Amino acid sequence: MASVQVFGSPASTEVARVLTCLFEKEVEFQLIRTDTYKGKNRRPDYLKLQPSGESLTYEDGKSTLVDSRAICLHIADNYAEQGNKDLLGRGRLERASIEQWLRTESQIFDPPSSTLVFYLAFAPLQGIERDEEEVQKSKKELEKVLDIYDKRLNEMSFLAGDKFTIADLAHLPNTHRLMTMVPECAAMFEERPNVMKWWETISGRPKWTRVVDLQKEAPAVA
Amino acid sequence: MASVQVFGSPASTEVARVLTCLFEKEVEFQLIRTDTYKGKNRRPDYLKLQPSGESLTYEDGKSTLVDSRAICLHIADNYAEQGNKDLLGRGRLERASIEQWLRTESQIFDPPSSTLVFYLAFAPLQGIERDEEEVQKSKKELEKVLDIYDKRLNEMSFLAGDKFTIADLAHLPNTHRLMTMVPECAAMFEERPNVMKWWETISGRPKWTRVVDLQKEAPAVA
After folding, report:
1. Which residue of A has its CA nearest to B213?
2. Domain for residue B221, yes or no?
3. Which of A59, A68, B25, B28 is the most buried (most CB within 10 A)?
4. Which reaction does it catalyse (chains A, B) (predicted)?
5. ipTM over cut 0.90
6. B101: which residues sit within 8 A by CB, 6+ positions away?
7. pLDDT tens-digit profile of B66-90?
């Protein structure tokens, strides 16, 4: 039996982040999910959740963790010798840079992108009215972040250097939702050539496309 | 919280039968599944199971059941007043005929079709050698069953009369595997016009295609 257990739905951006990391590190694990199917209500349950507020629990006998980025760091540390060995870099300096860009993702990319995913991808399906002020504010924030990224990615292929790391990985779930469900946000990425080239590279990774396949299921659509 | 809980994978023919019945009856339920993802092993776990030997548990507070047909009967009885009310017929006589055809499915259709699904759909993916004698024997048996069905379906649209019932429903999972994964068996259905018309009708039901969508996920592919 796998000693690593993940409780949650691949539809959650938080869970998707952890699954990608586990696939990259070639860790054996169990995914335990509970989907609720309503009789007549045809709306997916997961749409009722804030993208960033979905439940996630990671257990491996030693640790129980609930924050997706903390979990990714733990997995990369705990399984240092297997799978993708570049996820956390190959030395103290590389690691410092990766952790810094992971904090950047969490602090300045995640808030606006999660808000936009919620209001522009999920809320319309639920009939929730969008908060126009929030949307406009988040769009401006995201544009600024992408400008920083585009400059950075002009100098190197990935955010923390010339290798794909956890810092890039953390961007996959929200960016995927925006690129595939929100044309007006996809345009923001497409307008920035270095960002776009980076996105095409990281979103084509087989470990990630496997997670996309898992998300394609109808989770809790009744 | 849904009081009905189903433990198992939609990939299992047994579980698929129960899910179809729950969708038809518009019953709210929770599906609890555990998928194991191996590090380097790319083989789906479910392929290691005999199609008919997969685990399934149904719980609704009052009952814990493990046989898919018994579960379907229980659901249709327990939720008689909701969803599809024809599944078990509208009277004692209709019900007797439906139960008889359900037994026919279980006793003479299921054994050869399960064997053929195992040896011709799943075994090749696992590198398990086919038992040629078993395969030939099962093919002959299935041909005989389909001859009986073709005659019956010449007289009426569905096995137990002019309505889709549990007796037809029970045939969906194995027939779907044969039709989509085993051309030589699909041909057996296609050669019999009444069987084929029946299959096209029952396999196009939205409640069933929803289960097919759930099966399309990569369950436990690592």
Report:
1. A217
2. no
3. A68
4. RX + glutathione = an S-substituted glutathione + a halide anion + H(+)
5. no
6. B159, B160, B165, B167
7. 899 999 999 999 999 999 999 999 9
